[in-house]
Predict the 3D structure of the following.
Amino acid sequence: MGYIREPKGVDFVVDPKPLTEKDRGIISEIIAYYKATGRKKRIAVRNRTAGTIKKQKAKH
């Protein structure tokens, strides 16, 4: 795997996106569910283009 070369005068900086308290709560809930049951929890995924919510199956 090679490196990505930066164009002259441009710096690529990758910073983590800060999580909101709501996101942290959801992640904690998912981890607690997994620890308690050993299964992945199904979550609702928002479709960015249409703004609708659909269920996503957990992959095992």
Q: What stands out?
A: Residues 30 and 40 are 8 Å apart (CA to CA). The helical segments are 21-37. Strands lie at 43-46, 53-56.
